[in-house]
Amino acid sequence: MRVGLHSGAPSRGDAPDPFGRPDRGVSTLLDLASALARTDSVEDVALAVRDVVREALGACFVSLSMIDGPWLLTPALGQLDDDTEQRCLRLPLDLDTPAHRVARTGRALSFDDLASLVAMFPRAREELQRSGLRSGVILPMTISGGFRTGSVTVAWDRDRRLGEEEVALVTAVVDATAQAARRAQLYRERRDVAHTLQAAMLPELPVLEGLAVASRYLPWSTTDEQVGGDWYDAISQPDGGVLLVVGDVAGHDTEAAARMGRVRSMFRALAVDRGEEAPAALVTRLDHVLEALGDATLATLIVARLDPPGPGRRLRWTTAGHPPPVLVDATGRSTVLAAEPDLPLGVAPERSRHDHGIDWPAGATLVLYTDGLVERRGRDVGDGITVLRAALERTHTEALETLLGELVTEHVANSEDDCAVLAVRDVSRAVVRPRGSVDPGVSAGRATRR
């Protein structure tokens, strides 16, 4: 492995004694604490430590190496040539390099000149000579319980012996760095688990004869976990119809995602158990199951059943405290399928629920969504639905994936809530979709209630 200093790395051979002022050590640790407080990744931690230590101690090289299972990860910090830094990003932990040995054994290592370092690692003589590093110290990173997490290397391009105060300062720096790096590592692991959980819960949409189906899910969170309680699903029916659902469990975290997963799984099981069941009856059973299992999940939900292609095709739906769907016909005229919503799940399972229905227009597009798509701070939900209708009318000739992409663009910039969108379009036969002026004030359609 070739090691060489990046041409832009400064030489600190003439750097003044960092302890010319008695308070320099305290000042350095305060600077480090301030820098580490702004980090949320191991890479950020490594950059913070590099900048503070190079400034305080006149070092020309500072690196952080983190144990990750059988690997040692060393973020690229622009101090070595690019090829070397890329090769060092992820190396087996059992390699015998200075950083690897210290990380693996937990025993510190220091060298006052190049000859002493070569004597400790004779097989790496050529690499060490090419590195340009002549003195330094490598300290293990350990956290409570003596758990080893990696190592920190501080080196100079001149022969140098560290004084007692410098050793104490570097030790304090590494102790603080170990805690920050481990916190960042755990944060990344938690985020990765959350993302995996969320991805596992998003369904693979079925291929349906005569229907195009598309979806979007955009989580929102005050953290970087990016998980939440919104979901969608599309379940093909034995008779050729399709059951569509969009739901919203309260919350924006892994707990909300877990509760959403339970509700979604129960719904799927019930839907498959009685494929012919009307939406209202299906949601009623779901509510009773949640109550019987002691699950206090509060959720809104819309379930729609679209009949298979043929004469008298109908769309039936039920709403459990959820925003109304929007239907766009082949000419681009939108209709809000407004109907009195029933109560959300988890409120009063004994209350009756109702189905609503309309004749399905050939070539129509149906859009189901959660309130994150239309709700904004300072804006009424009704105004948000009006904006949604205008967007659907403007883009109704676009491919379904493109249409949804345009719908969620505004959401990404302005929302403070999760957003799930599910859309289906009738493509069972060629339909003329003319562009042109469409009255944005088309009144909401009337739905029959059964």
From TrEMBL:
This is Serine phosphatase RsbU (Regulator of sigma subunit). The keyword Membrane does not apply. Coiled coil: none annotated. Residues 41-191 form the GAF domain. SUPFAM superfamilies: GAF domain-like (SSF55781), PP2C-like (SSF81606). Keywords: Hydrolase. One of its GO terms (molecular function) is phosphatase activity. Residues 208-426 form the PPM-type phosphatase domain. Residues 1-22 are annotated as: Disordered.
